[in-house]
């Protein structure tokens, strides 16, 4: 099924390339449909690429591309530290982006969707990609690969990701683990991740049971997370609690303060010491090509055993 | 004496126009990217597709023009409301009019619905009209007295602002977004926003000038105005509607930008006297000056990131106003 899909996509890409050649435009390699459903005309071989979110940055590097500038929120791969920054992911510096004279801008289809109008005034091809799941990461990589003329590299990366993911899932034990993935906002309200969040989709892929699935609490500042009352947490009584703490140090980590939150001290997970902090970059700020690494880390926290990495 | 005032007005209006043009030039010249004056000039005049063109023409210029529009709108709306309520503290915020627009803006922001900019501006104005109508209904007792209008306005304003806050708080938007809306900001605004609001500004300002003669007469007092044949209730209603249109359009692009509508009309009166024909023109110019200056500061003061411009309007405007208060008379 996947091969068929890959073939279809390859066919589509070939048709696009052929169409571009027929039109004898020469300058443009064709049109891509990005992850917001926009048609983007891509230059033949983008030389000056700017990425404006951690996801976008990591996708460009994962297919072997390079950037001339990135957003100040991204910090991976370490190479980006040497590049100029163009604002933070939540408040892009549009002038700074233009000043880099990019021929392609890769922006975030989830966190930067509301800026799409302003991006379009820059008169540069804007490719919107984002990741709320494993499949999204692959879709994004494929698009970025096509845009940069690095489809082969993207396909290699995707094939490896698929294999690594399958290897990992084959190791999931029989026992079902019930997990709540919690995040706290600036007002110290606690929210639980549903499966349509990135981190929730990874837990689902690892076959964990997520009681937040059926909850319909108030939405929070983090899309896909719902407000969770202490009473609901007590009722669900998860085996494992995973926490994400977006506020940087010295703000306390949620995993540390959770046992002090009324109601939580009696939970099995808290009593058994199965409250684990998730890396905020890997699971919240920078969903992307490091998805397998994230899944492996979550695997060990959920099941208490480090997964075997073939050949590694 | 009469000649003095006329000459003084002419000088003041000409001076304000020059200051505004100079500030607009500064606003277009400064941004997170440092461009030389030749590059700025090239960006303004040469339509060739260059990065300077995009920075100057597509990013900076529409923002500067929007600052002019929003500043003029809010200041004139404030002057109109102060005239019609004969209350020096009246302004679109205090009277619940921009709060009505604010509720609409907050709902659209929270729901994340994209209805197009034209519809957004129109809805924002309708929200303001609903707020204004509610205030009018509450203040009505066989007629509307300025005092009751002010009091009802203040009460409704608090009600609607608490609703706006509740909507924003319940949604738990990222602080940055809420702050830009509550504080007032032109971040990420462009030509499309300008295209959606300028017609309301032009029509609103022209009609406001048309109403200025009636406002002058009403300043003499209710009874005197009635004796001179002014239908005070009608004038009041029309002027309130004009103020709503102007401030609603401003709120739809800039959020709840405070301070401009309250303070600028007083500065205008200090400069050109009490005649509303001049007060309105001076208010428009001074409001534009304050906002162009504030937005330029807001864009540049922190480097890559921006302050909400509304923070700067109050932060810079309030001390200046206090200084003025001690200088005049």
Question: Which short descriptors sum up this protein?
Answer:
heterodimer, A: 312 residues, alpha/beta, Rossmann fold, 2 domains, 5-stranded mixed β-sheet, 3-stranded parallel β-sheet, 12 helices, 12 strands, 38% helix, B: 329 residues, ABC transporter involved in vitamin B12 uptake, BtuC, 0% strand
* Overall pLDDT of chain A: 89
Name the average pLDDT of chain B.
88
Following the backbone from N to C, one meets helices and strands of chain B in this order, namely HHHHHHHHHHHHH
Helical residue percent band of chain A:
25-40%
> How many strand units of chain B?
0
CATH topology of chain B: ABC transporter involved in vitamin B12 uptake, BtuC
Number of domains of chain A: 2
What proportion of the residues of chain A form beta strands (DSSP E)?
Answer: 15-25%
Any overview of this molecule?
The complex is a heterodimer of chains A (312) and B (329). Helix content of chain A is 38%, strand content 15%. Chain A has 312 residues and is an alpha/beta fold. Chain A folds into two domains: 2-168, Nitrogenase molybdenum iron protein domain (Rossmann fold, 3-Layer(aba) Sandwich); 179-303, Rossmann fold, CATH 3.40.50. A five-stranded mixed β-sheet of chain A has the order 10-9-8-11-12. A three-stranded parallel β-sheet of chain A has the order 3-6-7, covered by helices on one side. In chain A, strands 1-2 form a two-stranded antiparallel sheet. In chain A, a hairpin with a 2-residue loop joins β4 and β5 (91-92). The longest helix of chain A is centred in the first third of the chain and has 21 residues, at 2-22. The radius of gyration of chain A is 21 Å and the shape is globular. Residues 17-26 of chain A have low confidence and may be disordered. With 329 residues, chain B is an all-alpha fold. Chain B has a single domain, classed as ABC transporter involved in vitamin B12 uptake, BtuC (Orthogonal Bundle), CATH 1.10.3470.10. Chain B has 13 helices and no strands. Chain B has helices spanning 2-29, 37-45, 51-85, 97-111, 117-139, 146-171, 175-183, 191-218, 222-227, 232-254, 260-272, 276-300, 309-327. In chain B, α4 packs across α5, α4 packs parallel to α6 (146-171) and α8 (191-218) runs antiparallel to α12 (276-300). The longest helix of chain B is centred in the first third of the chain and has 35 residues, at 51-85. Chain B starts with a helix and ends with a helix. The mean pLDDT of chain B is 88. The interface between A and B is medium-sized, with 29 and 27 residues.
